[in-house]
C-alpha cells in the first residue's frame, strides 16, 4: 500500500470513526498498519488507533500501540515524531494509573525539543504531567503543570487544550475542597465548548458537564448535579465512552448517597466498579470504594465498611495516592471512635496527620490544614496555596 492509498484509507477510517462506526474504523486502520509501506502513514494511523483505544477505555491496547509508534518514530528519525510518540506513551501510562512512569515520559518529551510541533505539544505534555502529579496527590507540582498548560493554551490560542485543562483544574479544586473554583473551571470549559466547539468531538461537552456535576454535588445542589450528569452520560453512551460512563455512574451513586438513598446508590457503585475494573482505572476504584464505605456507615454496617476500606487502602498504597489514604484514615477514625476501640483510633489519627504533613496540605498563613472542609483558596505564583480568609 503506497503513500496516497495509505492517506485515503486513514481518512476513510476517520470518517467512520466520526460517524460513530468505531469497530469499522478500527478494522480499516488495522489493515493500513498491516499493509502500508509508508512509515509516516503508519505513524499517523497508530496515532488514530491510540486515540480511539483511549476513548474506549482500552488502555492496555493504547499502551501497546504507543510502544509500536515509538519504534516507527525512531525509523523516521524526526524529533517531532519522537516527542509525539513519547507523549502518547506518557498518556497511556497516566490512564493506567502508572503515574511515576507517566511523569518520567513527560520529562523525556520536554527534554527532546525539536521544532515548532514539539513546542505546540508542550501544553499537552504539561497537562498529562499535571494529571499524573494529581494522581500522586503532589498538589503543588500538579498546579504548576496545569498553570503551564494553560499558558501554552493561551499563547497558541488552543481552545481545546484550554477546555481540557479547565476540566483538570475542576478536578484539582474538588480534591482540595475549594468547591467554588471546582465549579468555576468546568463552567469555563462548558463556555469554551459553546463558543468554539461546533466542530469538536462531543466528548468535550460531556467532560465539562461531568465535572460540573461533581462540583454541584459537593455544593449540595443535587438537582443541578443530576441534570449535568445525565447529559454527560447520554453522550458517553452514544459514543461508547466507557471511562466516562464509569465516572458518571460513580457520580450518580454519590448523588443518591448524598440523598441518603443507599439502596439506589449501591447498584450504581457496582456498575461503576465493574467498568473501572475492566478498563484498569484504579484511581476510580478507590473513589468507588470510598463511596461504598460511606454507604455501609450510613447503614451502621461498620465491619462491612472496614472491608471496603481494606480493599481501597491496598489500591491507594499501590498507586501512591496519598489523598486516598488520608480519606481512608479519616473514615477509620470515625468507625473506631464509634466502636470505642481507642488503640486503633489513635493509630489512624497519627496516620491521618502524617498524610497531611506529607502532602503539605496546610495554610502558610493560618497554619490550619487545607482540604478538611469547603474553603476558598488562593494560589501564589509559586503554586503554594493558602486560605483566602
UniProtKB/TrEMBL annotation:
Question: InterPro entries recorded for this chain?
Answer: Postsynaptic, Postsynaptic_CS, RAPsyn, Rapsyn_myristoylation/link_N, TPR-like_helical_dom_sf, TPR_rpt
Q: Name one GO molecular function term.
A: acetylcholine receptor binding
Task: Give every Rapsyn myristoylation/linker region N-terminal domain span.
Answer: 1-80
Q: How the protein sits in the membrane?
A: Peripheral membrane protein
Q: Which SMART domains match?
A: TPR (SM00028)
A single Gene Ontology CC term: postsynaptic membrane
Q: Does the keyword Cell membrane apply?
A: yes
The organism sits in which domain of life?
A: Eukaryota
Where is it chiefly localized?
A: cytoplasm
Instruction: Tell me where in or outside the cell this protein is found.
Output: Cytoplasm, Cytoskeleton; Postsynaptic cell membrane
* SUPFAM superfamilies from the UniProt entry: TPR-like (SSF48452)
User: What keywords are assigned to this protein?
Assistant: Cell membrane, Cytoplasm, Cytoskeleton, Lipoprotein, Membrane, Metal-binding, Myristate, Phosphoprotein, Postsynaptic cell membrane, Repeat, Synapse, TPR repeat, Zinc, Zinc-finger
GO annotation, biological process: positive regulation of neuromuscular synaptic transmission; synaptic transmission, cholinergic
In this chain the TPR repeats are located at 123-156
What Pfam families has UniProt attached to this entry?
Rapsyn_N, TPR_8
- What does the record give as the function of this protein? Postsynaptic protein required for clustering of nicotinic acetylcholine receptors (nAChRs) at the neuromuscular junction. It may link the receptor to the underlying postsynaptic cytoskeleton, possibly by direct association with actin or spectrin.
UniProt family annotation = Belongs to the RAPsyn family.
- The identity of this protein, by name, is 43 kDa receptor-associated protein of the synapse
Organism of origin: Malurus elegans (Red-winged fairywren)
Taxonomic lineage from the root: Eukaryota, Metazoa, Chordata, Craniata, Vertebrata
Amino acid at each position: 500500500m503506497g503513500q496516497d492509498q495509505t492517506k485515503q484509507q486513514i481518512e476513510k477510517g476517520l470518517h467512520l470513526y466520526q460517524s460513530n462506526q468505531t469497530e469499522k474504523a478500527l478494522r480499516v486502520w488495522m489493515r493500513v498498519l498491516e499493509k502500508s509501506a509508508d512509515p509516516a502513514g503508519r505513524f499517523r494511523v497508530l496515532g488514530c488507533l491510540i486515540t480511539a483505544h483511549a476513548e474506549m477505555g482500552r488502555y492496555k491496547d493504547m499502551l501497546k500501540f504507543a510502544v509500536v509508534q515509538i519504534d516507527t518514530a525512531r525509523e523516521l528519525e524526526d524529533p517531532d515524531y519522537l516527542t509525539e510518540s513519547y507523549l502518547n506513551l506518557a498518556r497511556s501510562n497516566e490512564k493506567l494509573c502508572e503515574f511515576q512512569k507517566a511523569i518520567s515520559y513527560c520529562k523525556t518529551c520536554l527534554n527532546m525539543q525539536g521544532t515548532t510541533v514539539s513546542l505546540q505539544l508542550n501544553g499537552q505534555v504539561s497537562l498529562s504531567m499535571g494529571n499524573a502529579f494529581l494522581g500522586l496527590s503532589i498538589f503543588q507540582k500538579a498546579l504548576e503543570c496545569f498553570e503551564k498548560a494553560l499558558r501554552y493554551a493561551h499563547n497558541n490560542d488552543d481552545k481545546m487544550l484550554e477546555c481540557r485543562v479547565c476540566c483538570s483544574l475542576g478536578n484539582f479544586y474538588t480534591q482540595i475542597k475549594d468547591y467554588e473554583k471546582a465549579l468555576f473551571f468546568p463552567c469555563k470549559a462548558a463556555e469554551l465548548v459553546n463558543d468554539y466547539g461546533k466542530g469538536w468531538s462531543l466528548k468535550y461537552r460531556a467532560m465539562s458537564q461531568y465535572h460540573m456535576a461533581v462540583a454541584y454535588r459537593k455544593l449540595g445542589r443535587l438537582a443541578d448535579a443530576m441534570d449535568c450528569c445525565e447529559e454527560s452520560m447520554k453522550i458517553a453512551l452514544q459514543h461508547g465512552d466507557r471511562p466516562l460512563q464509569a465516572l458518571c455512574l460513580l457520580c450518580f451513586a454519590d448523588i443518591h448517597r448524598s440523598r441518603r438513598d443507599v439502596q439506589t446508590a449501591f447498584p450504581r457503585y457496582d456498575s461503576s466498579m465493574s467498568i473501572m475494573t475492566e478498563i484498569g482505572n484504579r484511581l476510580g476504584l478507590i473513589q468507588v470504594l470510598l463511596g461504598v464505605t460511606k454507604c455501609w456507615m450510613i447503614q451502621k454496617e461498620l465491619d462491612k465498611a472496614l472491608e471496603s476500606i481494606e480493599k481501597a487502602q491496598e489500591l491507594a498504597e499501590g498507586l501512591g495516592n496519598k489523598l486516598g489514604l488520608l480519606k481512608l484514615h479519616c473514615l477509620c477514625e470515625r468507625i473506631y471512635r464509634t466502636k470505642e476501640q481507642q488503640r486503633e483510633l489513635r493509630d489512624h489519627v497519627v496516620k491521618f496527620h502524617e498524610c497531611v504533613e506529607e502532602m503539605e496540605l496546610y495554610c502558610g498563613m493560618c497554619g490550619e490544614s487545607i482540604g478538611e472542609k469547603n474553603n476558598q483558596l488562593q494560589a501564589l505564583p509559586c503554586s503554594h496555596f493558602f486560605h483566602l480568609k
